[in-house]
Automatic annotation (TrEMBL), chains A, B:
Molecular function (Gene Ontology), one example: L-glutamate N-acetyltransferase activity
Protein name per its UniProtKB record: Arginine biosynthesis bifunctional protein ArgJ
NCBIfam families: ArgJ (TIGR00120), PRK05388.1 (NF003802)
Main location: cytoplasm
Leader sequence segment: none
SUPFAM superfamilies referenced in this protein's UniProt entry, alphabetically: DmpA/ArgJ-like
Coiled coil location: none
Family label: Belongs to the ArgJ family.
Major enzyme class: transferase
Any Gene Ontology biological process: L-arginine biosynthetic process
Gene: argJ
Length: 337, 337
């Protein structure tokens, strides 16, 4: 996440090749993409940001990219269709486009916050093989957007996992052009933050839900932890455990595997105090299993979406992680590129 | 790992149920197993160790276990066949038994170190869902075997991964009965340590090679790291990456995914100094890819066993991790118990 002092007019993105681990040539290629895009749009150089996503360690096929940039420049039009078209273009292993729009009114003027993201695999934040582009017509003159964006990202894009693999190429960009004629100030800040959170939260959810060959989205709500870091460690140990993820896939509410992952998470707790429930069905109360609820746990886990609540009874801290299951399809899909 | 002051006469182990997260009843059941086994063998109480492996969170079916213990006690015979029989009995999702024997001579007397292990899934040390039983006829009178065993375990049983899931029920036991009439002392210590390492190393290798539905064993040799912990972090990030493991399965020498995992391992390094080779075929030298070697990398990765060397050129520390690939079969096998 960077804060830009020079005006940014747009983004040029490619998929299929991450332009990562490509050394000096890679840097030069990114620079070329920015310059060619600016030229194609008739805008000053150094006003475009460059994003790439795809295979690591191979040079970009610059001939094709240059040709495409020249063609795109001529095709740029204003309006919503262009946003849709952009959202489709950035997809890689995604099966559907991911967009979200929020609006709010200030003194009869409408402010829009709109986001578009891609990401399906190599999803474990900080942040994931995901690109997210958020635009707004609020005026951010004199305001540092970076901490505002970071706050929204922390519990959305940074709180998801598909496969536990972090990425070389994760990006979230927030661009504001001021066209709404509404200023971001003390009177609009909280409303703007809420809209931004909503966009990030919705897009983060769509990324997990479109995880490579997944069948389930599981919301892990850890509460009563001694520290937020402890709560996060627990959520990530569970959400990244292959044995937990495969059991979700198999509709098996195997709380023993949750307890096992809790045990190796880097967090202090007393196993005899823990409550676990699947949805609103208790599986473990104060460390004691409620086996008669088993048919109901199974019903919860057989849904495409469900929530697991874990209360550590060790403090006040909490953490939410959105995780997916793990399927044979994921393995098959990723066994070669 | 515990050091026992009271004499231990044997081990009673069950598979299919881990007797973990079973509270007071679980503790009582373990005690009952020890007592019944001692009674069945006609030996004093408190001389048997108890090991369990299997599903977490369910009470042991004590009726069946008690019956089996009574029958086993009557069936105990001395000799190698019994060792074989024991090795078969402790298997769970293992497809084959895992045993190893080493001997050495001291003044015409033979010392034997023999081991038997089980483990195939939930394999990420400290230590793994593995049970390993090592017996020797050396006399360890007055010697603390614990640090000697720990030294052997650190770079063998604690340096393997199948799925990155640690276990509730990992155990390594070393029992010495002194029957060889050879004492463990300054003159025999190094030879004994070498034999013990060989047993642990061989059994650890067999556990990875029999990992649940795996097709490959990959030896990761990290060298030139700033610290051993840094080298271990790198090896584990790579060895537990779903994207790396699936690419091995697909015979895809995707060094980009190795670099990605290196990037999120908790270790300091300069990407432009790294050497990576598959077997003896360089893929990356000083951070620069050698694409002309690609056909040869592919050949290496298509083997059932291969080694990846990664030199960080950041120091002198090194670490070796044995890892497996990840297959659709693993997912299918673990989706329900």
């Amino acid at each position: 996440m960077l804060a830009s002092d020079t005006p940014v007019h747009g983004i040029v993105a490619n998929s299929g090749n991450a332009n990562a681990c490509t050394g000096e040539q890679g840097k030069a290629d990114a620079q070329t993409m920015a310059e060619q895009t600016a030229a194609a749009c008739g805008i000053e150089t150094d006003s475009f940001l460059v994003c790439s996503t795809g295979r690591i360690g191979e040079l970009l096929p610059m001939e094709g990219i240059s040709k495409a940039i020249a063609e795109s420049g001529a095709a740029v039009v204003e309006g919503a269709e262009d946003g849709e078209s952009f959202s489709n273009c950035i997809l890689t292993s995604d099966t559907r486009k991911k967009t979200c729009t929020a609006t709010f009114e200030v003194d009869g003027k409408t402010v829009t916050v709109a986001g578009s993201a891609k990401g399906a695999g190599m999803i474990q934040p900080n942040m994931a093989t995901m690109l997210a582009f958020i635009t707004t017509d609020i005026s951010s003159e004199g305001i540092d957007l970076k901490p505002i964006l970071l706050e929204a990202v922390t519990h959305t894009f940074n709180a998801i996992t598909v496969d536990g693999d972090m990425s070389t190429n994760d990006t979230v960009l927030l661009l504001a052009n001021g066209e709404s004629d509404v200023a971001l100030d003390d009177s609009t800040l909280e409303t703007f933050k809420a809209a931004l959170f909503q966009i990030c939260d919705n897009l983060a959810d769509k990324i997990v839900a479109d995880g490579e060959r997944i069948t389930k989205v599981v919301e892990l709500l850890i509460s009563g932890a001694d520290t937020e870091q402890g709560a996060e460690n627990i959520a990530r140990a569970i959400g990244n455990s292959l044995l937990v993820k495969t059991s979700w896939y198999g509709d098996d509410p195997n709380w023993g595997r949750l307890m096992d992952a809790l045990g190796y998470a880097d967090s202090e707790f007393d196993p005899e105090k823990i409550d676990i429930s699947y949805g609103d069905v208790p599986a473990l109360v104060s460390g004691t299993p409620i086996p008669e609820n088993k048919p109901k746990w199974k019903e919860v886990v057989s849904n495409r979406r469900f929530t697991i609540h874990i209360n550590m009874h060790a403090g006040e801290a909490k953490y939410r992680l959105r995780a997916s299951d793990l399927t044979e399809g994921y393995v098959d899909f990723n066994k070669s590129e």
